[in-house]
Write a structure and sequence with these properties.
Layout: E1 12-18, H1 27-41, E2 44-50, H2 56-63, E3 71-76, H3 78-89, H4 94-97, E4 102-106, H5 112-120, H6 128-141, E5 144-154, E6 159-162, E7 165-169, H7 170-177, H8 187-198, E8 203-211, H9 239-246, H10 252-255, E9 324-336, E10 358-364, H11 369-379, E11 392-404, E12 411-413, E13 416-418, E14 423-435
Parallel strand pairs: 1-2, 1-3, 3-4
Antiparallel strand pairs: 5-6, 5-14, 7-9, 7-12, 8-9, 8-11, 9-10, 10-11, 11-14, 12-13
Helix pairs in contact: 1-6, 2-3, 5-6, 7-8, 8-9
Bound molecules: adenosine-5'-diphosphate and magnesium ion.
């Protein structure tokens, strides 16, 4: 008897979008040599399209027939995936479209999401081609997980969907200023950090947020680290350490702090409460907005497409009474929703893909340059919260608003520069789907 072809399992079909200019421009070469043979072997069928300009991927994803694909994969840095997600959200059928599994094969200079996927899978933190190979293998496994997106609104009223972070101050300055070292790949952030440390700026601003009332504060978890037989961390993985040591900015005892105690595996939910005083537990009063406190549809009501931002009021109006506001001088403000800020920057070890949380982290002015260096070094292992630095604060929130009071500065959303001025966002839990392997 014959079996109808429709009953046979068909190979997965992936739409691969490749940015030939991401990172050091190696994406196509790495893809042809390493990735395509791997996914062919895994019986995945694919179309590979090279992007020709910024927003090409975004436009493409807006117009294609999604029924033809089982997943869309960005072979690039985080920037191209941002385009894919926003393209999906700009479709009239966004509600179904955003359920299309999306994946990333890291070959840009900013590979935060790939770092998070790699870590989530319990793999050792790696960079470059090693990270790409890990992610390609995970992609072949095909497992898909829900992914939070954050709707971000800027002063002009523009709204976008972000999957990584909103940054102001030190982090966004380094990100944008280091664009000129793009040819260096991930090392551009190392050099950028060094340059910025030499001239540490502070920024005055008003930061408001809606604390996540039910979010128990998290104990930071260190990822598993390969410790060399002599008990030291393998130095070749730590470019920032090495560079700072070479410059005499970092003593060995700092570079190796936190190598012990025994590292916990990366993805372990339900951790006990923190021991660190620098992690603020959410205040104990209720943060649910009272009836009539917000306009019916929230600030998102005026937007076409996408879910309404029911927690937000328009930027011109004061934040709801249930929010907390701090006005201060900051070295940086970072609203991050994934564990990684870069492939080797384990900035929010407690973050999960679908925890429904924005992890609001900020460093207040007054921190010494040495302490800031120590934090960034420790971030490579995700142990920076263990330093109990009084200037570093972490609050899990559902929504935030940042109003810069310093006239000039840089704001980024997922590593891309956006207009400078008031900015706010709220999390939409599990809106998208990520291929995690
Ligand atoms: P990187 O991590 O190196 O920044 P990304 O993949 O994030 O790499 O890409 C950076 C930017 O390049 C993105 O904003 C994207 O829109 C843009 N881009 C995509 N395709 C092209 C292209 N063909 N030419 C120039 N820029 C592009
Ligand atoms: Mg999250």
């Amino acid at each position: 008897t014959d079996i109808a072809p429709s009953l046979l399992p068909r190979p997965r079909r992936l739409l691969l979008l490749l940015n030939p200019f991401g990172g050091r421009g190696l994406a196509l070469q790495w893809c042809q040599t390493h990735v395509l043979p791997m996914i062919t072997e895994a019986d995945i069928s694919f179309n590979l399209i090279q992007t020709e300009r910024p927003n090409h991927a975004r436009e493409l994803v807006k117009s294609i027939n999604l029924a033809e694909w089982d997943g869309i994969v960005a072979i690039s840095g985080d920037g191209l995936l941002y385009e894919v997600l926003n393209g999906l959200m700009e479709r009239p059928d966004w509600e179904q479209a955003i359920k299309m599994p999306v994946g990333i094969l890291p070959s840009g200079s900013g590979n935060a999401l790939a770092g998070a996927i790699n870590c989530n899978a319990g793999l050792e933190q790696v960079l470059g081609l090693e990270l790409l190979l890990n992610c390609a293998l995970l992609l072949c496994h095909a497992a898909v997980a829900p992914l939070d997106l954050v709707a971000v609104t800027t002063a002009s009223g523009a709204r976008c969907f972000s999957c990584l972070s909103v940054a102001w101050g030190f982090v966004s300055d380094v990100d944008i200023e280091s664009e000129k070292y793009r040819h260096m790949g991930a090392a551009r952030f190392t050099l950028g950090t060094l340059v910025r440390l030499a001239s540490m700026h502070t920024y005055r601003g008003r930061l408001s947020y809606l604390p996540a009332a039910d979010a128990t504060a998290h104990r930071p978890i260190s990822r598993s680290i390969t410790v060399a037989p002599n008990g030291r961390l393998p130095l070749q993985r730590l470019p920032l350490h090495r560079a700072l040591s070479d410059m005499g900015l970092c003593e060995e005892r700092h570079a190796f702090r936190g190598a012990e105690p025994a590292p916990a595996p990366c993805p372990s939910p339900g951790s006990p409460p923190p021991s660190s005083a620098s992690v603020l537990p959410p205040p104990s009063f209720s943060f649910e907005p009272g009836p009539g406190e917000l306009p019916a549809g929230g600030a998102g009501e005026a937007q076409v497409g996408g879910p309404p931002d029911e927690l937000l009021v328009p930027l011109g109006q004061p934040v709801p009474g249930s929010w907390v506001t701090v006005e201060d001088d900051f070295v940086l403000v970072l609203a991050i929703y994934q564990s990684h800020l870069g492939a080797d920057l384990f900035a929010a070890p407690f973050a999960r893909f679908d925890d429904g949380l924005i992890h609001l982290c900020f460093i207040k002015a007054g921190i010494s340059r040495a302490a800031l260096v120590r934090l960034f070094l420790a971030m490579e292992k995700g142990s920076h919260f263990e330093q109990e630095c009084p200037h570093l604060v972490h609050v899990p929130v559902r929504a935030f608003r940042l109003e810069p009071l310093t006239r000039k500065g840089i704001l980024t959303v997922d590593g891309e520069r956006v207009e400078y001025g008031p900015i706010q966002g709220q999390v939409h839990r599990a809106l998208a789907r990520l291929i995690t392997g």
